[in-house]
Amino acid sequence: MASDKKYWQSVEELTNSSFVETLSKNEFVKEIATDEFLGDKETLSTSSTTRRDFLKYVGFTTAAATLAACEGPVVKSIPYVVKPNDIIAGVADWYATSMADGYDFANILVKTREGRPIQIMPNKDANATTSARVQAAVLSLYDEKLRLKEPSKGGKNISWSDADKEIGAALLKLKDSNSPVVLLTGTMASPSTDKIIQEFIVQYPNVKHIIYDAVSESATTDAMMMIYGKRALPNYHLDKAKTIVSFGADFLGDFHGGFEKQYVAGRRPETGSMSYHIQFESNMSLTGANADKRIVAKPSDQIFALVNLFNTITGSNIPSKATPVDAQVKQMASELKKAGSKGVVLTGINDKNAQLVALAINKALNSEIIDVNNTLNIRQGNDSEVAQFVIDLKAGKIGGLITYNVNPLYSLTNSADFAEGLKKVSLSVALSTENNETVDASNYVLPTSHFLESWGDTQFNEVTYGLMQPTIQLLFKTRQLQDTLLTWSGNTTKYYDYLKAFATNTILGGSSWNTALHNGFFIKENTSVAIASEISIVDAAMQLSTLAKKVSGFELNLYTMTGLGDGKQANNPWLQEFPDPITRTSWDNYLTMSMADAKELGFSNPVKDNGAIDGDYAKVSVNGKEVIVPVMIQPGQAKGSVGLALGFGRTFGLKEEMQVGVNAYPLYKNSNNIQFGVTIEKVSGTHKFACTQVQKTIAGRHDILKVASLKEYKTVEPKDHHGWNKPSYVSYDHNEVEANTIDLWDEHNRELGHHFNLSIDLTSCTGCGACIVACHAENNVPVVGKNEVRVGRDMHWLRIDRYYSSEVETREEAKEKGLSRGDTYKALETEAENPEVTFQPMMCQHCNHAPCETVCPVAATTHGRQGQNQMTYNRCVGTRYCANNCPYRVRRFNWFNYANNNEFDFYMNNEYGKMVLNPDVVVRSRGVMEKCSMCIQMTQATILKAKKEGRAVNTDEFETACSSACTTGALVFGDVNNKQDKVSALAKDKRAYNVLDYLQTKPNVVYQVKIKNTNEA
Amino acid sequence: MKSVALHSNRTLIFLKSFTIILFFAFSITSYSQEVDEARQKEGKNLFKSQCASCHKLEKKLVGPALANVEARRSNEWLHKWIKNNAELRASGDKDAIAIYEEYNGAAMSAFPQLTDQNIDDILYYTTVGDPKAAVAAVAENTTIVAGGTNSPAPSWLIYILAAAIVVAFLMIASLLKQVNELKGNKAPKSTTNIKRDLKELWLGIAQNTFLKFTSVIFLLLISAYIFFGSLYKVGVDQGYSPLQPIAFSHKIHSGDNKIDCQYCHSSAKHSKHSGIPSVNVCMNCHKNIAEVAEGTVVEWDGETYGKAELDKEIAKIYTAAGWDVENLKYTGDTKPIKWIRIHNLPDFAYFNHSQHVTVGKIECQKCHGSVEEMDEMYQFSPLTMGWCINCHRETKVDLKGTEYYDKIHKELANKYNVEQVTIAQLGGLECGKCHY
Questions:
Q1: pTM value?
Q2: ipTM passes above 0.90
């Protein structure tokens, strides 16, 4: 390592230097208040339980427990009456299908056990990726609290046939009076559904179909419409890019559905070339965190910078303004010109003019990266149509309203107008999977099936035609939208038959329906070629810069969080407990603010002695709307800008624990993610965050992380036995010797059988966290709730540590300057305005020489021959010595029973939620330690499959939940005793290193040094 | 309780044997006069092999009931019909067409292979029916024999043994007495003396520290042994035999009829679960088997189930499957059977049947006992961890022919210098192999 970097995890570490030492000494952050209780004589004497009573109770309960244990419960086994041929109890079936819930779209594989979906994985054949939300969608299926169970009218249950009759009659009446009816849906991206809606409109010409996306990218589709004559999102082949310049486009997050797979494919250090990625942004986004160079610019500066870039590249002279980042813009312009057609510019500003300028720059570059032919159909919302519709609705011009899986009463800025207008319509029908405000305000409520219970087709881009098939019987009395519309159109065909005929006749072109259904997708030829029309960009650019010139006050950048997105799955405990990759905070949204602004306005994030973080409240006002939100100080936030996540603050019908955060949609005027003229005022009150970033302290051993530049990687040969780790010395026999030469443990013989290793490529890991949710689903990891997370009792087996770093003086330099250790951190403070960010997935390292195994008094944690550090729950007595002795802080203790416990009413406490549990993994009970098992149930299953088929295990056949969920290929699992397995080469790669190797734990998890392209020659 | 049952049994046995003797005399005389047993037997065999899948004597099945069919049709017509009914229908025979239509056009297969003699034998059998009494008598006889040998014998033995022990005690006592007398001591005669002796014995022990110490230790050890022994039994359900909703006898199915275990428990070779067969698997056979054979008995929950009870048990399958016995149709009205699970492993122990059945090629009986001899199924093995581990330590599994094991077995055999490695040597004792 050439540069000496300081890694830090939280702002507090910088401002309070003694903090690291304090926390590192506190293993158990919350002390039990025994002294308080015993010291208080008064309480003791007034206590009604005497010592004798106490002993009696102890005796009685012990005896009762013993007696109760003697009698086993009677277990019933109820076999099928007629067993379906493809189901064998105890053997998982996988189905290929698609997810489309209006915001998240993916080609997926669904694992089912005994007819219940229990896990979602990406359909890698379809080149698909899954995010944390897609992974977690399987739990939303079993949301018995929020899902609608049967049709109702005015709050009273009604049969489907009666509902059809009444609504049919009402529709006819509206048709006769030619009163407009609006069908309001989210983006469905389903060709057959589009056709059904068209046919429905033929029957009822007074019906208008309006598409409404809560989180809109309408500006981009409008811009595409203007230039290329088609309402769709452009596609970006970032794998082929040489230079990527992004102005606030979070393309590793939710921008156009995300491009992480393509992005990472273009960044393989071993090929010797990596794309160079520059991010101009105000919020610290996942994309900015991964960028080679992140340039802090508040939204208005981004706009000027975009115009300036346009000027420089095209040589035009549109009036703009000088920005603090002009030097970098110039540099970018030359970089882009150098890259030519391999360069691309993206912008996340949801403004048509900004998008037009970006498209124009790409056109001027003749960029091959942007693809306007194979476009994306996953955001079809039309903001202007929606705005006009709300005006009409309020004016009483709409006769009937049919909504499908949208919740405008929650997600519209002017939801009051909508509510007012809704009262004026004569027919309001809500077709919805889940209960929400809009459903509640509608007259007819018709439950629709979850996508895992439905037939369907999808067309996310122009070439991949996806199919959707049910993976479970209907849980409730639901019916699909398509079947409902077919019925109302007077078509007696079942949607399944309709879909089959539609796909066979118009899409498959002679290919087998069964094959397409089996694969879950069908690749067709793209025939559409977009032709650019000549329009003047100058006007657009002019308008854009005039808009930004009027700016005053704070600038608010609304964004979507990796966990909750647009808020559709707000009642999903996995996603609520999912820590945000950047702030590492769960169960909340908050106003992100730069350190400088926070200081000025008096906001702070004090760390409590139990490791939890508190925050102050701010009143945010914009356009006459006000919200009160807690403030989170965010390193890397542009001064003068603040960020706030959409999708939180839903309350209607949600479980009480999930009613967290603040609804930011009222501030989302004109669906623009950038809002100017924001005022911020500190108000009283303290907010309690559930933030995990400082809890798993690794006691200052920050050399756990290794980052190098592409140049270093190419030129530096890591020393043979240290790799990227610095040699460390210890005193042995009064001599200083290398730590590696001393070992407390005997060597294991690892030559026989399998030896599992997991390789984690820090270059490819974007921190998206899909692996975390996959791990939850596979291993029945419990959800513990906000209060428990706050005190550091989260149960994540796999976490993704986020480190900020800045280059500082080495220790020697600091000594020269007379700086204490704390001061070096202080010196970082200015650097913290824009730190570098590195993600590091951290789970049990499965040490060959495991410190935890040595200290277990009951041998509950032992080492397997295959390299796994095994945890035997039934043997564990809960001393927690192992957690104490683990240098990686990856062991999790069950402080409570998280299943069948009303105190933890998340999903393991009801019959529906429990259906998602993996039957091959035990649900742990109170008082035992648990941790990553390297998915031993999966490796064992793979071995058993090979044995049953009488063959050796195939190359790369071994998988873990995290490695199969990882679509960028950062996590690779396999058997290093099979030389053909990918992981064998990776374990010996030039970039490979073990974390904290001087401890001699010899982990079976191997990391690959993160390589950043610093664009040096 | 037991003794009461025995008493009643004995009277029953007497009564039964009496009636049977009477019956025997009666039936033998009556049968010898009218029935040609050879023809009857021949006819029955043919009927079983050729006709029974669609016909019964007394009941409608796929085709009509055939008892006394000769009374309804002419012998000539029957011959034609049986040999090739389609030809007969084609010739325009009204009766043939009528019966064809009555059964909704379900065509009967042709039997050109049957000779006229064969057909006559079958028809003879349909007329005279089963050799009922004889079978009943034999069956009753066997029950007597079974009853006679099974239950009283152990108690006889116990009485004899008890008597022997008492006699031995008496002999020892008298010997001791003689020894005492020889020593010159007078035998104690009164009860007060015995009391005094006991008291002296107690005092002797109490005064002797060593004796006191050892007996206390001994008592403590005994009670600890009993205490821990009973604690170790907690949760061990060896012998657990809950009352099942249907009196299903593994002995009849697996023992008498030799049905392969995995015909019904088909998922044992594929899955972690052996699986309880779904009702449609039962119906594969029971669609045609509505009754048990005469004289079938099953020991069920301390009672003996005969044909009358067992036929009712079979009817439970029909209720579950929604099978209309009259019209021989599925009604669709199903009621799943709620079996009681016998082998309950705790949640934290992972066990996979296919690993043992398919890969290890272990006989089912190794863990489940001689199921083919059990009327009522029970848990044969303790299913404790010690029991698992012992087997893993001792078992040398034949790994030949499984490519997966080829390399590792060779290497391990070399390492341990053995011909065949045990499961333990393969890593089968690691905690994580069964607990995750």
A1: 0.83
A2: no
